[in-house]
Each structure stands twice: as structure tokens, then as C-alpha cells.
UniProtKB/TrEMBL annotation, chain A:
One of the record's GO molecular function terms: DNA topoisomerase type II (double strand cut, ATP-hydrolyzing) activity
Organism of origin: Gossypium mustelinum (Cotton)
Catalytic reactions on record: ATP-dependent breakage, passage and rejoining of double-stranded DNA
Main location: nucleus
Keywords from the UniProt entry: DNA-binding, Isomerase, Magnesium, Metal-binding, Nucleus, Topoisomerase
Localisation per UniProt entry: Nucleus
Cofactor: Mg(2+)
Topoisomerase 6 subunit A/Spo11 TOPRIM domain: residues covered: 184-292
Protein name: DNA topoisomerase (ATP-hydrolyzing)
Catalytic class of the enzyme: isomerase
Record's GO cellular component terms: nuclear chromosome
Active site: Y103 (o-(5'-phospho-dna)-tyrosine intermediate)
Family membership noted in the UniProt record: Belongs to the TOP6A family.
A GO BP annotation: meiotic DNA double-strand break formation
TrEMBL record, chain B:
A molecular function GO annotation: protein-macromolecule adaptor activity
Organism: Gossypium mustelinum (Cotton)
Listed GO CC annotations: condensed chromosome
The protein's name: Type 2 DNA topoisomerase 6 subunit B-like
GO biological process: meiotic DNA double-strand break formation; reciprocal meiotic recombination
Length: 313, 500
């Protein structure tokens, strides 16, 4: 069944880290350069000419990191440093954020994205999700509406005051006793929209749950949304701007992000439905021209880069 | 063969004598006697090699601009006999005029009375100073020492140096230049009392060779001694610079053309010596620029364009070197390096010859063959000496080794699984009993990582190429398609074979 992994318990991950380390040592003791296979994943389908049933769960290829190229060696260096931290987190059952890890060797990592990539590489190597590594990100998302649950003994009683925003729980595993009287889930792109709904007491009039990832949704928000959809089996709608960023955010909820494509099947919500202005609406409803905003150059190229299908290889 | 000066003529005649000794199978002796009676010097070059077929003299061309009639009348007196002859033939050959109009005058022969020997003596009288001649001859012999031309004999050599008027000349002839060709240089001056003193030097072989040694082994040994004696400017190896043999690393490469090649039978031997000299009293004028000595057909030769091209087209960066320039200095090419450590000195010699030499053939030096020979020598050096000639790329990769080792050691030592830790110790060949500190583990891993990087760097590009390329950008850039049809093998008996 989608969304279930075979072994992501700390003990299993620690075993995999040890196996990985041993394989490096074995190669080195035979005088060989270690070969680190990193599978690559993607969230889109490159099959252009037929109706494809692929679900992008399978790796689309792999990269091999060796000692031959400097860029590879740097990547291996960062990977091993992060792996050491992850091993300690798992052994001591502690949690750390990506940012915490970055600040352990800021000079060597040079950028948060370098750490993020290493974390992704480790997830692929150990076949697990990021939270399995005890690496968490601070929840950015907000939730309100007809919902009640416990997280680590703390009660989130949204039903009592459905128009009060709560932060999305970081550790989805710890969410217990989920209860809801909602009829649907509404995902909104922007925090401003969320606040507007809050001020308007939208949830008093509508039996729903409202969630926002405040722009691009982070992992906890998407995992929490996925949990709600799986547990409550409610229809879910997404309200985004009619611009390339809006489309991309919608796609991130629905298909997963490219960066964490390896984990997309645990994070995506394929049931999500597009709510909001479609590009065709401006013609269908004869919207006056002055209501439209011109696409900025940045947005235009972004849109093309993001939405043109990649050239078949 | 065009001769443009008296010095060059003498060198050419000495060189011919050396070749006759080289072809002889017995012990040979070569004498160069310069007899001075101002303003004339009588030059006699005699050898006990195979006799001469005279063609080598008849083909000589002297142009009037190079050698004026006031310097030399053009007359060569040649006495020669081969082992099967029963007399010694005597000729006069006048080299003035065109080749076709030359007259060979046959003088009365001298009977050998059943004695079995061979040899040649060439005499000429020129108007020149001894010093002008001596400089070039000395230089020639310094270079010839490198070839260590073999002749099968067990004789040792007793070279002579003669001085006169108590004025000790440069003792440039201190050692055998030909393993068993006894060579002497006699200078007699008629202007003074004629006091003659002879100095005899016993051979001082730094690395003895046996007679089955190949040409390239001889060249290697020759260059080694050349370097140990500061480019043959000393009589003995310089003990202050080379107190330990570790300071000199030497390797050779041989490239030969296949039958299908446009000039089959061509052989290029390259020898490279790298020496580490601390700052010492010994000062070498050329700094740490590299002199690339050139030989062709067992004689010192000028630098060919093909050779210069070969030297500039080598990917030196893959050996951690950056070439600034390679300049033709007539008898050697001078290479200037960028940021070569001042204590490091590189000497190089390139010898091109035909495997059937001497014979009737014409060939041009081949750029690809020279390049191949030099690269094989470089690869051989790299193979034999850990850490030597590491490419700039590998040096960069090596700089990651401490960090990689530290992380791996961290993963091992911070694991709470004792079984895992002991397994790692076994793989790292660390004894179980001793208390293993982080530093020990780290150092051992670092050692192994560096050794892997060095091994990777040593692999010739073509072997690396054999692995399938997963990504286009991994493909080596500098592939010379012309290299593929050359048959090649490295010195020291290592034979690489490559697919055609």
C-alpha cells in the first residue's frame, strides 16, 4: 500500500548506516574508490506520446558518486558529516532541524541547500523519509476549523474555537485521537487569505478545515494534510493564485516537490482539487482587462522553465 | 649531410667513429688527437670499430660560407680496414666541390701480415685554436656519456686526459662514455716545452650495467649519472646533493611505431629524472628549468619541430606540472615550468632511432611517438613513486581526505554497536587488543583514501576510459586519435597493450 515503508525504525536505519560505512571501508581496503549510488526520482512523466500509467514511484536513473570528481568528493564529504549527525540523533533519539545541522559546520556546508541535498541523499540511500532521520523542520503551516487532536499529550481543540489558527504539528507520528466534524478541507496558498478567512469567521459558517503552508508548503504541512486526508477521507480543495507560482504550489501539494521527489509518494495528495481562478476564466467571464496584472519577466520565464515538459532523453 | 663549421665537422667525424665502435662486437678504442703547431691543428680521429665503407665521408657536404678555404683545405686522409681485409686501405678525399665531382685518391695500401683487426683513422689539418675546438668536443662527450653505447666486451675503460705546461685542463674526460670503447683525447701543443702529462682515471660507475642491457636501460643509467654529476660537469657523483639515492627518481618509456605506421621501425626512448635537491652550495645555472637532451641514431642531435610540438602538447597538468614554454636551444629544448618548487629538478632525454640503424632509410621524427614515449616515462615514474607527479586534480581531491576520514571515523567510533566497531577495526587492519584512539582510526582511513586517489590518478587515461561512462562529462578531454595506432611499451619490461 502506498505510504507505508517496510523498515524505517531507528534500529533499521542505524543498521543501514553501519552497512553503508562497512561497504565504504571494504572498498577502501581493497584499494578501490567507493561507489555511492544515489537514485534519482522525478515527479513528472517524460512519456509524451501515450497515455501513461506511471506513478513516478520508481527511480528514473541513478548517479554514482566516486572519488574521481571534485564535486562528487565534496558531496560525499557533506553526506558523511550529516550521516554522522543523523546517526547520533537516531542513537540518542533526539531531533534536530535542518538549520541546526547547517550550523554545525556552516563554513564547510556554505549553504543550507547543501545540507538539504545531503539529507535528501541520505533519505534515498537509507530508503526513508526525512522525519525518519529525526531531522525535522519547524512547522510553518497553520490550521483552523472543525478538528481536534492530541500531539504529544497536548490537546489541539480547534472545534471549540474553529476560527483560531493553530500551528501545524511537526511530528505527525505523535498526532493521536484525530476527530473531525468537517465536510471538506480547504488549502489556501497565502497566509493573508487564511487570516482573511479567520477574520471573516469563515469556519463558523462552513463546516471545514482550513490549512495554509504560507506559500510553498513545508514537509510537516504536507504530511499533516496527507494524514488528514488519509484518516478523515474528506474532499480537499486548493485555492491558489492564477499565476505560475500558484500553479507550482498546487503541483507541490498534488504531486510533491522535485527536490524531494524520492519521497513524493509519502507527501503528495493526489486527491487535491484545483479551486480558484483558472486562466481561462478571464475569457469565460469576460473579466475586464484592467483586472488582470501583467506577468513579470521573472514570472514568465519561471513559468516556462517549470511547465515545459523536459526534452525526452 | 651539410657541415657548416670546423667544429661540426670534427664532431661529425667523431660521431661516425663512435658508430663504427658501436657496431663492432669487440673491445674498441677511440682516440681523438689534437696536435697543435700554430696556426695549424692536426686532428686525428682513430677507432678500432668496424671498418668504414667510405660512403659516410663521400656524402658530406661542406659549404664555403661555413668553412672557408683558409680554415680547411677540404682534404680528408682516411685509413681503414675491416676484419676480413688483409690490408689497410689508404685514401685521400677532397670534399671541396660538388658530391658528383669528388675524386677519391687511392694511396698505396699497408699489408696487415695476417693480423686480425679492424679500424679507421681519419686525419685532417685545420686552422683553428684548440680552445674553440675543445669546447664543442667536450660538450659532445658530455652528452655522449648519456648513451652508454654497448659493445660486448668485459673490458673496463681507461680514459686519458693530457695536460701540458702544468696547466691542468678541464678534466672532462674522466669516465667512460662508451661502456667498452676506450676513449682518449690527446692534446699536444707545439708552442711550449712539450711537457706532457697523462692522467688516467678509472671508471666510476654509479650503476653498473651488464652487456645484455637494452638501449633504454643504458640511456636510463646514463641520464642517472649525468644528473648525479650535475650534468656531467663533475668527475664523481655529487655527494652533498645526492647523499641518499631517494633523491633521484628515474623512469623510462619506449614507444615504437607499428608496421602500418607511415615510418615503421621507428623507436623513441624517453628517460625522465626527477631530483630533489635541497638548497646547497651546488648551484646549477639553469635554475629549475628542464633541459631536454636530444639524440638521434645514437648521436646528439638538434631539437626537431616534432619534438617541440610533442613537448608542448603533453597534458602536463595531469602530472601536476604547468608548462610555461618549451624553447629550442639548438642541442636541447629548454622547458620552463610554472611554480615548480625550487628544490625540484627535472631532466629529460629523448632518443629517436630506427630499429634497423644503420641502414638505408629516411624518416622524420614523429610527434605522436615522442609524446607517447615521454608520457610512458611520466606514467612509469608515477607508478613507481607514491605521490610523485600527482595531477593537480588529484592533489585537490586528496585535500578532502582528512575530512572524509574524520567523518567515517566518527561514524565508527560513535556507534554503540561493538560488533560493528570490531568489524571496522578488522577491515582497517587495526589490532583488536590495543585501545584504538580516534586519531589512529582516522589516520588509517586517510591513508587508504589517499592511496585510492593516487591509484586512480596513476591509471593511464585509456584504462580509465575502459570503464563505461555514465555521464558525458566524465569522458577525458585530451584523447589523441593518432595515439591509438602506435604500439607502445614502457621501460623496465612493462608492456601495455591497447586495442587497435
Amino acid at each position: 500500500m502506498e505510504g507505508i515503508r517496510s523498515s524505517t525504525r531507528s534500529r533499521d536505519l542505524l543498521r543501514k548506516i553501519k552497512e553503508f560505512t562497512l561497504s565504504i571501508l571494504e572498498d577502501l581496503s581493497e584499494g578501490l574508490s567507493p561507489l555511492i549510488f544515489i537514485q534519482s526520482f522525478r515527479t513528472y512523466c517524460t512519456n509524451l506520446d501515450s497515455i501513461c500509467s506511471c506513478r513516478s514511484n520508481k527511480p528514473s536513473g541513478h548517479e554514482i558518486l566516486t572519488f574521481q570528481k571534485e564535486s562528487h568528493v565534496h558531496r560525499i564529504d557533506v553526506l558523511l558529516r550529516v550521516l554522522l549527525i543523523v546517526q547520533q540523533l537516531l542513537q540518542e533519539n533526539k531531533h534536530a532541524s535542518k538549520r541546526d545541522i547547517y550550523y554545525m559546520h556552516p563554513l564547510i556546508f556554505s549553504d543550507q541547500s547543501v545540507v538539504d541535498r545531503a539529507i535528501n541523499d541520505i533519505c534515498i540511500l537509507l530508503q526513508c523519509s526525512r522525519h525518519n532521520l529525526n531531522v525535522v523542520s519547524v512547522g510553518n503551516g497553520l490550521v483552523m476549523g472543525w478538528l481536534r487532536f492530541f500531539e504529544a499529550g497536548r490537546k489541539f481543540d480547534c472545534i471549540n474555537s474553529p476560527n483560531t489558527a493553530h500551528t501545524v504539528p511537526v511530528l505527525v507520528e505523535d498526532v493521536k485521537d484525530l476527530v473531525s466534524a468537517a465536510l471538506y478541507i480547504l488549502v489556501v496558498e497565502k497566509e493573508s487569505v487564511f487570516q482573511r478567512l479567520e477574520n471573516d469567521k469563515f469556519c463558523s459558517k462552513n463546516r471545514c478545515i482550513v490549512i495554509t503552508g504560507r506559500g510553498y508548503p513545508d514537509v510537516p504541512t504536507r504530511r499533516f494534510l496527507r494524514l488528514l486526508v488519509d484518516k478523515l477521507c474528506l474532499p480537499v480543495y486548493c485555492l491558489v493564485d492564477c499565476d505560475p507560482y500558484g500553479f507550482d504550489i498546487l503541483a507541490t501539494y498534488r504531486f510533491g516537490s522535485m527536490q524531494m521527489a524520492y519521497d513524493a509518494k509519502f507527501l503528495r495528495v493526489p486527491q487535491i482539487q484545483w479551486l480558484g481562478a483558472f486562466p481561462s476564466d478571464s475569457e469565460n467571464y469576460d473579466l475586464p482587462k484592467q483586472c488582470l496584472l501583467p506577468l513579470t519577466i521573472e514570472g514568465d520565464t519561471y513559468s516556462k522553465d517549470q511547465w515545459l515538459p523536459p526534452a525526452p532523453s | 649531410m651539410d657541415i657548416s663549421s670546423v667544429q661540426k665537422l670534427c664532431i661529425h667525424l667523431i660521431s661516425s667513429a663512435v658508430q663504427r665502435c658501436r657496431l663492432s662486437e669487440g673491445l674498441c678504442r677511440l682516440s681523438v688527437v689534437l696536435k697543435s703547431s700554430p696556426p695549424i691543428i692536426r686532428v686525428s680521429i682513430s677507432d678500432t670499430g668496424t671498418g668504414s665503407c667510405l660512403e659516410e665521408f663521400q656524402d658530406l657536404k661542406c659549404n664555403r660560407e661555413g668553412i672557408g678555404t683558409e680554415k680547411w683545405d677540404g682534404l680528408l686522409s682516411i685509413k681503414t680496414t675491416s676484419i676480413s681485409d688483409n690490408k689497410i686501405y689508404h685514401y685521400h678525399l677532397n670534399l671541396r666541390g660538388s658530391v658528383s665531382a669528388r675524386r677519391l685518391t687511392r694511396l698505396p695500401s699497408i699489408p696487415k701480415n695476417d693480423a686480425k683487426f679492424s679500424g679507421t683513422e681519419v686525419c685532417l689539418s685545420i686552422s683553428e685554436t684548440i680552445d674553440a675546438l675543445l669546447k664543442d668536443i667536450k660538450h659532445y662527450f658530455q652528452k655522449m656519456l648519456i648513451l652508454k653505447i654497448p659493445v660486448s666486451s668485459t673490458a673496463t675503460l681507461m680514459p686519458f686526459i693530457c695536460t701540458q705546461n702544468d696547466m691542468v685542463r678541464n678534466l672532462y674526460f674522466n669516465e667512460t662514455f662508451l661502456k667498452s670503447v676506450a676513449a682518449e683525447l690527446v692534446i699536444e701543443r707545439g708552442d711550449a716545452s712539450g711537457l706532457r702529462c697523462e692522467n688516467v682515471f678509472l671508471p666510476n660507475e654509479c650503476s653498473p650495467l651488464n652487456f645484455s642491457s637494452s638501449n633504454v636501460e643504458r640511456l636510463k643509467s646514463g641520464l642517472e649519472e649525468y644528473v648525479l654529476k650535475h650534468r656531467n660537469s663533475l668527475n664523481n657523483k655529487c655527494d652533498s646533493c645526492f647523499c641518499s639515492r631517494e633523491k633521484l627518481k628515474i623512469s623510462s618509456g619506449v614507444a615504437s611505431s607499428m608496421e602500418s605506421h607511415r615510418s615503421p621501425g621507428l623507436i623513441v626512448e624517453a628517460v625522465i629524472a626527477i631530483s630533489e635537491l635541497p638548497e646547497s652550495l651546488c648551484f646549477r645555472s639553469s635554475g629549475n628549468k628542464t633541459e631536454v637532451l636530444h639524440f638521434k641514431d645514437f648521436s646528439p642531435s638538434s631539437v626537431s619541430i616534432a619534438s617541440l610540438n610533442a613537448l608542448t602538447s603533453i597534458d602536463w597538468r595531469s602530472y601536476g606540472l604547468t608548462l610555461v614554454s618549451a624553447v629550442d636551444q639548438v642541442d636541447h629544448a629548454l622547458i620552463e615550468w610554472e611554480s615548480l618548487p625550487p628544490y625540484l629538478h627535472i631532466d629529460m632525454v629523448i632518443h629517436c632511432y630506427h630499429k634497423q640503424y644503420p641502414g638505408k632509410y629516411k624518416y622524420q621524427p614523429d610527434r605522436h611517438l615522442i609524446k607517447k614515449g615521454v608520457k610512458l616515462a611520466l606514467d612509469d615514474l608515477k607508478e613507481k613513486h607514491t605521490g610523485l607527479l600527482l595531477s593537480a586534480h588529484a592533489v585537490k581531491i586528496c585535500s578532502y581526505a582528512p575530512d572524509l576520514a574524520s567523518s567515517i571515523a566518527g561514524i565508527i567510533l560513535s556507534s554503540n554497536d561493538l560488533k560493528f566497531r570490531s568489524k571496522c577495526s578488522t577491515l582497517l587492519e587495526l589490532s583488536q587488543s590495543q585501545a584504538i584512539g580516534k586519531q589512529t582510526v582516522e589516520d588509517r582511513i586517510k591513508e587508504k583514501i589517499i592511496s585510492v586517489i593516487e591509484t586512480n590518478d596513476r591509471k593511464p587515461e585509456k584504462i580509465k576510459e575502459a570503464a563505461p561512462f555514465l555521464f558525458e562529462d566524465d569522458r577525458p578531454q585530451d584523447l589523441d586519435p593518432a595515439d591509438l595506432y602506435l604500439e607502445e611499451h614502457a621501460g623496465g619490461g612493462n608492456v601495455f597493450s591497447f586495442p587497435d
